[in-house]
């Protein structure tokens, strides 16, 4: 087909737009749907992992930290007792700081 003028070209493109436009629109909608589905699945996985962290791992970490805190308190008390029982001569003298 030979197109002689702009209005004829416009009419030709408009008439054949559906031949390319609708399949392109369908492919675009299909790709957008696939992206939306994968994004939704990833969001579900992330929420599940955060829930698992909040309900399972954080209480275990809290219990572990309490145990460590008790251990450090015990070590602190033992060191204080050792220093109190240490003879005065065995203690290190305080260092004097020089002014720069």
Outline the secondary-structure elements.
Layout: H1 6-85
List keywords for this structure.
single chain; 100 residues; mainly alpha; 0% strand
Can you tell me about this structure?
The protein has 100 residues and is mostly helical. It has one domain (6-81). The protein is built from 1 helix and no strands. It has one helix at 6-85. The protein starts with 5 loop residues before the first helix and ends in a 15-residue tail after the last helix. The model has no long low-confidence stretch (mean pLDDT 84).
In short:
By secondary structure, the chain is mainly alpha-helical. It has one helix and no strands.
Summarize model confidence as the mean pLDDT: 84
Silhouette? elongated
Largest sheet: none
Total domain count: 1
Uncertain parts: none
Q: Could you tell me the radius of gyration in angstroms? A: 38 Å
The helix-strand sequence is H
Fraction of helical residues:
over 70%
User: What oligomeric state do the depicted chains represent?
Assistant: single chain
Structural class: mainly alpha
Discrete helix count: 1
Q: Approximately what portion of the residues adopt beta-strand conformation?
A: under 5%
Distance between the termini: 94 Å
Number of β-strand runs: 0
């Amino acid at each position: 087909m030979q197109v002689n003028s702009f209005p004829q070209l416009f009419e030709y493109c408009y008439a054949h737009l559906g031949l390319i436009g609708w399949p392109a629109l369908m492919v675009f909608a299909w790709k957008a749907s696939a992206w939306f589905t994968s994004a939704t699945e990833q969001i579900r996985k992330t929420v599940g992992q955060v829930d698992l962290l909040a309900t399972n791992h954080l209480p275990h970490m809290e219990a572990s930290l309490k145990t460590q805190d008790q251990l450090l308190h015990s070590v602190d008390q033992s060191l204080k007792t050792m220093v109190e029982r240490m003879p005065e001569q065995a203690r290190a003298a305080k260092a004097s700081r020089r002014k720069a």
